[in-house]
Each structure stands twice: as structure tokens, then as C-alpha cells.
Amino acid sequence: MNSINISDLLQRCDLALEAQEMVTKGVRGNIKGVQTETIKTEHAIIHRTTVLNEQGARAIGKQPGRYITLEVPKIRMQDFEANDKISYVFAKELRGLYNLNPNTVALVVGLGNWNVTPDALGPKVVSELFVTRHLYTYMPEVLEKTAHNVAAIAPGVLGITGVETGDIIKGVVDQVKPDVIFCVDALAANNIDRLSTVIQIADTGIHPGSGVGNKRKSISKESMGVPVIAIGVPTVVHAITLISNAVNLIANQRRMDLGPDHDNVIRRTLDPYVGALVVTPKEVDVLIEDIAAVISNGFNNYFHDHHA
Fold first, then answer.
1. What is the rounded CA–CA span in Å between residue 20 and residue 273?
2. Reduced to 3 states, what is the DSSP secondary structure of residue 45?
3. Long-range contact list for 6-10, CB < 8 A, 24+ apart?
4. 267-283 per-position pLDDT tens digit
5. Under CATH, which number does the domain 6-237+285-304 receive?
């Protein structure tokens, strides 16, 4: 596979972990400019990736910064006790990425279209947050000492509002003046097994719609003026990727050699027919409910309980 084709594939790869896997497939050794660490716990496999410089950024198609990927397959089992534990893991990783101080003002942004189930994760998370900015303003005496100043917004999408999401967020930022922004968004995966079973946290900001070929203005420290922490969960997979994976599985079972460029042949052949078509599990409504509960509970713990 040549570098141009790798670049094309990486543009549709939302998960840093999958980008690494794509680049290192069949190659020994580490990627220059990229550091990785993997930790296994009872309820999650934690992958910590640091893109150190522009060399690493070019290699895996990700901005320099820190990426934390939580592999949490138990989420799909509706094990509520396990989901509570996963929420604590999520909160702990957030603390490691951005440490709040008592005066921190935080803004949580739930990106996505609340009318489209696989894209409704962000708005769903926001609806379940314990927001306190109004209480700090009007009823500070009711707040516990551990409660931070938190505001939240679900700005919708361009097709609903007619306004770029980044412009709406910037307007809110100018009024609220947060110290940090947390953006929650639905992502696209390259592996169907990772749908709704992976949570990615990154300190590099977010680019709404990039994974499904729908590029919007970035939401980053450069555009917003404050650090932006991105939280994403894959809820769709590209149809071309799904077909390519199926062909590879059949070939492996029959011990067929498809050649080194077969993935690109499949994509070039199918692109005129399926293009940017994406696929989501039929039980996506339940999955969105469960993963939104995990993330919102993790946020509430992170913002309002230092000792958990």
C-alpha cells in the first residue's frame, strides 16, 4: 500500500488506536514520533498514545497531543455494575489529562444531531449532566464544596441551525468564558467490534464530521482560545470498510492470497456505489443510552467529586 493510499484511509480514521494499527500493520518496531502505553484493568484496556511531533502526526494522521483510548466491551452487555466502574475509569483518565482546580469553569459541548440516533450521543450526554453555572450565579449556598462551575450546550448541526457549530460554540465561549471545553461527539470506526465499545479522549480538540467525510470548522485551542478536550465514541462504520473486512475474513478462512493492494482495489471498486454510506447496529438506540450514561456519570464524578 503506497503512502497516498494510507493518507486517504487515515483521513477517515477517527480513532488514534486504529490509525496506529493501520500504519504498523505488517511492520515491526515503533512509529517515530509516537509513544504508546497499554494498561489492562478489570473493566477496561487503556491505550495511551502521545503524538510527540509533526513526524508522528504525519505518520498516523493525527494532531500532536495525547490520546487515550478505553476499550470497554462490557458496555454492550448492559452490565450496569460494570458500567459504573467504567465511569470511574473514564473520570480518572480525564483527571490525568486535565486537572481541575477549585476555580475552574468548564463548558461541555454535546455535538451531533439529536434527530439521528447514531449521532445523538453528544446531546444525550449533555442532557444527563449536573450543570451548576446558574447555581453559582443565583444559589451558591446550595452547592457542595467539591462542585465545579459547569455549563453545557448541545448546539445542533449546520443542517438544523444554518450556523456553523464552531461559530455557535465560540459565541457561548465569549459569554461564559470557560477555562476548558469538553466536546462529546460520535465517531466512525474501522472495526465493527469497536462500535460503542471504545471511548477516545484527546487533548487536541475535535473536527466535527471528519470521520464520515463531512468536514466542519475545527473546535480547538487555536479557534476557541482555551484547551479543548475531545471525547468520542464510534457509533458507525463505513460500508466500504465493512465489506473489505468481510472479504478479508473469507480470504483468511480459505487461505487465499489477495495481494498487498487488495484493500485499495475493493475501495476503488465500491466507492462509486456506496461512497460515504455508513452502517450502525440495529440496537444503536440502546447502545447510545448506555454509553451516554457511562460518559455523563463519569463527567459528573470528575466535575463534582474529587475523592471518587
1. 28
2. strand
3. 7/61, 9/263, 10/60, 10/61
4. 777 777 666 788 898 99
5. 3.40.50.1450
Give the residue carrying C-alpha cell 475545527. Answer: 218
Q: Find how far residue 211's CA is from the centre of its chain.
A: 10
Question: What does the pLDDT look like over 202-240, one tens digit per residue?
Answer: 999 986 545 445 556 789 999 999 999 999 999 998 887
Q: Identify which of 94, 108, 99, 102 has the alpha carbon closest to the alpha carbon of residue 151.
A: 108
Residue 143 C-alpha cell reads as 452547592
Instruction: Tell me the three-class secondary structure of 228-267, residue by residue.
Output: EEEEEEEEEEEHHHHHHHHHHHHHHHCCCCCCCCHHHHHH
β-pairing, 65-71 vs 198-202, is antiparallel
CA atoms within a 13 Å half-sphere pointing along the CA-CB vector of 116: 16
pTM given for the model: 0.87
All three cell numbers of 295, joined, read 460518559
